Amino acid sequence: MYAISYASEGLRIRGFLALPPAGSSPYPAVIFNRGGAGERAVLQAEGAYQYLGTIASWGYVVAASNYRGQGGSDGTEQWGDGDVRDALNLIPLLDELGTVDMDRLGLVGGSRGGMMAFMMLRRTQAFRAAVTIGAPTMLHRCSPQSPTRRMFNRFLNPAQPIEEQLRERSVIVWAHELPRTTPLLILHGTGDSRVEPEQSLHLALELQRLQFPYKLILYDNADHILAGRRNESDYDIRWWLDHYVRDRAPIPKTGPHGA
Questions:
Q1: Sign of CA dihedral 91, 125, 27, 230
Q2: 3-class SS at 250?
Q3: Would you give the distance in Å from CA 217 to the centre of its chain?
Q4: What DSSP character marks residue 233?
Q5: Where are the strands (E) in the chain, listed by range?
Q6: 106 contacts 183 by C-beta, under 8 angstroms
Q7: N or C: which end of the chain has fewer CB within 10 A?
């Protein structure tokens, strides 16, 4: 595990890099997007060992950004704007390592990081598969009193219409723009008190309508971070990454088929 810094739009951004057990390179790789906002949400070494270290132990190089304005990174914190570009700029960093198979990249994001993962997928086809955990999908439909909206209100741009900013961060509005080459695993706890589990359900319904490759898992009696279901969710995440990223499995069939 390494603390890293890298360039993003003229800023010096800090983060972490986890390497897998020794094996034959090039390795598959995963970009991990943390959630939260403010100093309390900064990815510290302990969290990096827990999240990045677990995925690295499965045989992946894993990179994570602390985004601009937090964790010692330059700039001012944003939420669904420059931070998305900071995460995307981990892709050339992984390429520069020389030990990563750039044809086998995966993406994992939780909460705000899941929202950012959707926004990243809208801009690139670089990822073979993606996983989101407790991610907001429809901010434009959330009550202004909801935890997610109250969080985002801290980062509103007064020069831009609020509705426009909300829709820009609501994947359900532009789900048709997601790359069909990136199967999406959507995880959510049915007891999530921060992001309503219905947000993932509504996204899944839209993806079903679009005949997009996806899988939805709602964990009963699980909260925002899937506490108590970590072993089960780790198994589901690992299977998805191993199948579609490491092993380059074909895109799953979509639309009506079979018996």
A1: positive
A2: coil
A3: 16
A4: H
A5: 2-8, 11-18, 27-33, 61-65, 100-110, 129-133, 184-189, 214-219
A6: no
A7: C
Strands 27-33 and 100-110: parallel
3-state helix, strand, coil in the chain (%, to 5): 35, 20, 40
Mean pLDDT in residue range 196-206: 98
91 neighbors 126 (Cβ within 8 angstroms) = yes
Q: Tokens for 128, please give them.
A: 């073979």
Q: Which of 81-85, 89-93, 215-219, 255-259 has the weakest average pLDDT?
A: 255-259
Lowest mean pLDDT among 18-22, 23-27, 116-120, 185-189: 23-27
Q: Is the dihedral of CA 164, 40, 124, 214 positive or negative?
A: negative
Q: CA gyration radius for the chain?
A: 17
State the average pLDDT over residues 92-116.
98
For domain 2-246, give the fold.
Rossmann fold (3.40.50)
In this structure, which amino acid lies at residue 257?
A: H
CA torsion, ordered 99, 105, 111, 116, to nearest 10 deg = 100
Q: pLDDT tens across 18-54, in order? A: 999 998 889 999 999 999 999 999 999 999 999 999 9
Per the listing, tokens 């020389």 go with 98
